[in-house]
Amino acid sequence: MTHTDEWPLWEVFVRSKAGLDHKHCGSLHATDAKLAVQLARDVYTRRQEGVSVWVVRSDQIVASDPADKGMNFDPMEDKVYRHPTFYELPAAVDHM
Amino acid sequence: MTQSIELRASADLQYLLRLGDTALILAQRLGEWCGHAPVLEEDIALTNMALDLVGQARAVLTHVGELEGRGHDEDQLAFLRDERDYYNVTLVELPRGDFAWTVLRNLFVATWAQLLWERLARSSDPELAAIAAKAVKESRYHQRHAADWVVRLADGTDESRRRTLAALDALWPYTQELFEGDAVDDHAHASGLGPRWADLRDAWQSEITAVFGEAGLPTPAASRFRSTGRRGVHSEHLGHLLSEMQSLQRAYPGGQW
Amino acid sequence: MYTQAMDTMGREPVEGNSGIRSATDQRMEEAFEQRIDAGDFIEAKDWMPEHYRKTLVRQISQHAHSEIVGMLPEGNWISRAPTLKRKAILLAKVQDEGGHGLYLYAAAETLGTSRDQLLDALHSGRAKYSSIFNYPTLNWADIGTIGWLVDGAAIMNQVPICRCSYAPYARAMIRICREESFHQRQGYDALLTMMTKGTPAQRAMVQDAVNRWWWPSVMMFGPPDDQSPNSAQSMRWGIKRVSNDALRQKFIDATVEQAKVLGVTLPDPDLRWNETRQSYDHGAIDWSEFWAVVGGDGACNRERLAARVQAWEDGQWVREAAVAHARKHDLKEAA
Q1: Contact yes or no for C156/C87 (Cβ under 8 A)
Q2: For C192-210, how does the pLDDT look when each residue is reduced to its tens digit (9 = 90+)?
């Protein structure tokens, strides 16, 4: 059932500390971008300072289809030299 | 039954209590929305605001207690004064109201508070200046949230506009008090403690005019009505609010919480 | 406690499990179960059996409803909190609960339902929430007691769900558990202050609260195992937490010790240390009370639901106004 008062869904990404990436932390309902950003701050960064917040309408996100996993991801997994975690570096340099 | 504390408020203390009590009483009203807001996200946002205001009240009341020098702490001041010794503006003790009433009152108070805290950050009282430096960021956020909502409601549906206009009509007369002047203000101004509230009027008015312009709201005519909460003479609402707020402290003399 | 839904579900029909599956579905299900066995996380767009999806929607949403309704008994004391510090703590705690409800609705929405649909189910009485919130908060010590006992029980139930196979739910639970840590502590701290530094009247207040909240808290872990339709399937999927009785015993054992430190008497004259079991024996639980409350006849069921429905209905014009305003602006920008 559709309601005239139903608010669209937005996905929220938060950078918790300078230097880190924005991380997806969940969703919320808002009617416009300004409200979405404000509410994201209130809901997902409560009582924390100095964060950056991205909001995107959920229906605007384009995602890969998990059913294509065979095509997009398995080739990587077959090739042991591609993925950084497949290389065992000496402890002294193992911080990359 | 715990008796009221006797407050000896010099001009400076009254100046500070006007600020601290306004935060305290508005926090009390905003807290009434907890669990009852129109949408979960706003429940959290309004409660955040209440928390900020409780924090401001705690800081100011603690400072008042220290300045008074009679051993009163933040809680004795918050919970055990007689009604006549509270100096919040009447505007904040009015009932919680509907959402339009709430955001409009928040707009009026936060716009004023932001201007006041900005100037208090340069107070001759270093403790007050430090409190102000933190509070101004909070008021800025409260003001933005409120302004955005006033615009949404004034320019939303017919019903939201009707309710916003009704709230405006009822609340506007109480905003006059935010710019009153008296000996307390003159003293604060002279000592560098803080600005005369009257000196904030023009800046406040131009900010409100800007928001009203975006919202398509008229600025009501001035009236002769003057509320007098900042002098300790309140509306009938504060008595009920304080009975509830003070009830546990009054009922448990000597209680530790 | 929030997984109470799993226990009462045995008395409700389960949809989506007709038992007749196509060969493709059967293959997909086998592959799915293999992923579960391998400890894989299931994400929102992964194939999942309809029964899994429906079970999760019900579980997660009822958990969310519990958080929201849970704001009401505690919210009842915000205006009367006795100190500014306690007021701030209570506001923050109740706000956290709202936030937890929000995270959980968000997780449920990844399964193809909307928050409005879920709220509809709550407001119409179709969806359940944890029955502990149908008890009234009658004095200030109830607030500390809820923190100590109710949140204590909730934490015991919640930690295992952080390993739930459905990743959005697991992630929400991790976030919730991280924020939950101060809830139980602040409740216990408030009681400890009153018991050790307070007046006789305050101590009496605390004892009164404990007298009323002990048995309902013990019931929060759900009916005895032999009366719970333990779905082996749900346990494999990591949705159903461990045995009700085992968790209940763990809770009782921990809490009896905490009660001793507080100096309160738990209202069970049959509480006795059993040296053989290395656990506390306890008195018989009145399960008729539990089922009455679950069935809608607790002290506050009607009031709690009415409060939520009222807030929702009162807020309709606000939500509509925001939508209308946004629409006007979209049109303006498009022009």
Answers
A1: no
A2: 999 999 999 999 999 999 9
Say which CATH architecture domain B11-251 belongs to.
Up-down Bundle (1.20)
Cβ distance of B45 and A38 shorter than 8 Å: yes
Interface A-B: count of C-beta contacts within 8 A: 28
Residue A95: is it exposed, middle or buried by C-beta count within 10 angstroms (0-12/13-18/19+)? exposed
| Inter-chain residue contact A42 with B48, CB threshold 8 Å | yes
Of C78, C316, C325, nearest to B31 by CB-CB distance is: C78
C-beta atoms of A38 and B144 within 8 A: yes
The pTM of the full predicted model, rounded to 2 decimals, is 0.92
Report the distance separating Cα A29 and Cα C102, nearest Å.
Answer: 9
User: Do the Cβ atoms of C268 and C282 come closer than 8 Å?
Assistant: yes
Under DSSP, is residue B94 helix (H, G, I), strand (E, B) or coil? coil
CB contact under 8 A, B160 and C320: yes
Average per-residue pLDDT in chain C? 89
| Among the listed residues B158, B178, B154, the one whose alpha carbon sits nearest the alpha carbon of residue B168 | B154
**Which pair of tokens denotes residue B109?**
């108070």
Give me the residue spans of the domains in chain B. Answer: 11-251
> What phi and psi values does residue C287 have, to the nearest 5 degrees?
-70, -20
What's the pLDDT tens digit per position in C86-100? Answer: 999 999 999 999 999
Give A29's contacts in chain C (Cβ within 8 Å): 115
Q: Say what the ipTM of the complex is.
A: 0.97
Q: In angstroms, what separates the C-alpha of A4 from chain C's closest C-alpha?
A: 6
Q: Any alpha helices (H) in chain C, and if so which ranges? A: 4-8, 23-37, 50-75, 84-109, 115-123, 141-145, 151-161, 167-197, 200-219, 232-236, 244-262, 287-292, 301-314, 316-334
Inter-chain contacts counted by CB atoms under 8 A, chains A and C: 53
Chain B contact for A35 (CB, 8 A cutoff): yes
Is the Cβ pair C322, A9 closer than 8 Å? no
Query: Within chain B, which residues score under 70 in pLDDT?
Result: none
